[in-house]
Write a structure and sequence with these properties.
It is a single chain. This protein has 8 helices and 12 strands. By secondary structure, the chain is of the alpha+beta class. The chain folds into 2 domains: about 120 residues, no CATH class; about 130 residues, Trna Endonuclease, Chain: A, domain 1. The strands form 3 sheets. Strands 1, 2, 3, 4 and 5 form a 5-stranded antiparallel sheet that branches. It has a 5-stranded mixed sheet with strand order 8-9-10-11-12. Strands 6-7 form a two-stranded antiparallel ribbon. Helix 4 packs antiparallel against helix 5. The chain is globular, with a radius of gyration of 19 Å.
Length: about 270
């Protein structure tokens, strides 16, 4: 295979600063752009554990504002290019009361999505905590593992990433499914779900799958989890039943290598 040439990227960190006098902030988002290309992506904190971390650091943090940011930026970045550039140029002034961009930094990377995951993990995601010797996992952590596996099996570039679902649910729905693919008239979707985290992730995926199938019956869904659902764990079994009702397959990370190998022939 031909060697991929590195792309020049630039990024800025979005900081939440509820008290400007104290000049204390916490990183809540990341903007990544291609310097000589069209790609631009904004990733924000969304999981309950990520919001909770901000509240621990800033007990008076505006949780409603933080939860609204993903949809706000998603809508802004989908505007015409001239409007997006104007918005980004003014964002420091318009949001200077609580939100600020860090100085811009550049880097070279071979894969945009991989770099987005790495930067979010290094600068934004809560550090892994340990309870009883077990590292707590997040969707971002699972997605990073998936990208590594899919890249080794040479299918990462054949998957759509960050697929919007609003055309199937409701206009303005900010949710994006992690990956999508097509083969023989079938549309497939993959979504990471952390069983040990907020079970509402699973409920949102089940609702989304139901909406998509109502418009495109020949669709298949797979939830990628950090572990196999445990039989005597009520939360795990609730999620497993929910997925079974909506015909969502569950593939834990210990079976993802085989899953990727089986998926590869379909994507040719």
């Amino acid at each position: 295979m031909p060697e991929e040439r590195p792309s020049t990227l630039r990024y800025r960190i979005l900081r939440y600063t509820p008290n400007l006098i104290r000049d204390e902030w916490v990183n809540v988002g990341l903007l990544l752009e291609e310097v000589d290309g069209p790609r631009r992506a904004m990733r924000m904190i969304e999981e309950a554990s990520e919001i909770a971390r901000v509240r621990r650091l800033h007990p008076t943090a505006d949780e409603n504002l933080l939860r609204a940011l993903p949809a706000e930026f998603d809508a802004r970045l989908r505007a015409p290019e001239a409007e997006v550039r104007t918005y980004l140029e003014k964002i420091g002034q318009t949001l200077s009361n609580v939100l600020q961009f860090s100085p811009q930094k550049g880097l070279l990377a071979e894969d945009f999505d991989t770099e987005l995951d790495r930067l979010f993990r290094d600068h934004i995601a809560p550090p892994p905590s340990v309870r009883g010797g077990i590292v707590e996992n997040t969707r971002a952590w699972i997605r990073t593992r998936l990208n590594d596996v899919f890249r080794r099996h040479r299918i990462l570039g054949k998957l759509e990433k960050g697929v919007r679902v609003e055309e199937f649910t409701q206009p303005g729905d900010p949710m994006r499914l992690d990956y999508a693919y097509r083969y023989n008239g079938t549309r497939g979707y993959l979504q990471t779900v952390a069983l040990g985290r907020d079970p509402s992730q699973a409920k949102v995926l089940a609702y989304t799958a139901e909406c998509i199938r109502a418009r495109a019956a020949n669709s298949e869904f797979t939830a990628i989890t950090e572990i196999e659902p445990v039989r005597d764990n009520p939360r795990h079994q609730f999620i497993a039943r929910l997925f079974e009702e909506q015909r969502i397959s569950v593939v834990p990370l210990n079976r993802i290598e085989r899953f990727a190998e089986d998926l590869r022939p379909r994507l040719r």
